[in-house]
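re: that chain from earlier
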Amino acid sequence: MGDKWKHTALLVIDMQKDFIDRDGPMLVKGGKAIVPNVIEAVQMARQRGILVVWVVREHDPLGRDVELFRRHLYPAGKEGPTVKGQIGAELVDGLVIEEGDYKLVKTRFSAFFATHLNSYLKSNGVDSLVVIGVQTPNCIRQTVFDGVALDYKSITVIVDATAAATADVHSANIFDMANVGVATPTLQEWV
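^ sequence. v structure.
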């Protein structure tokens, strides 16, 4: 089973408390519902020998490395979202980085933008991606479209292990990604 999957990486995107927990300042309303499927997808990936890459946002406490449109979330004297070392930047309960997994910090929507993800994956023989996490129209979509542009042979988005603020927004973005050749199975279809 391992040979079939040895060129695949599972990208787990932004499954952090500030995005998933009810009190999170960046709450993605559909995020909490997918946590069990994200856990199961990670477990399945590990069983298959798939490289698990935890893609997380970790920002400077003053917000100097966030997008301009988010800088208002980091006013002087107030902690902004997903600040490195703070509780909100931690993975949600039930998700744990294990030995052999890889953690990648990003500061923009795409996991590829201004990071070394592409070179890391290529140097590990990865040519296929499976993407899960939040949020479908932003970080999932940008990462997937960058993966397409970088010529990854196969890209899969597990539709019930990804989420957006609404089901309609999620569905519309899944439709767009499917139209460029991205596979969009449910978790049970992928398992």
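The chain has a mean pLDDT of 96.
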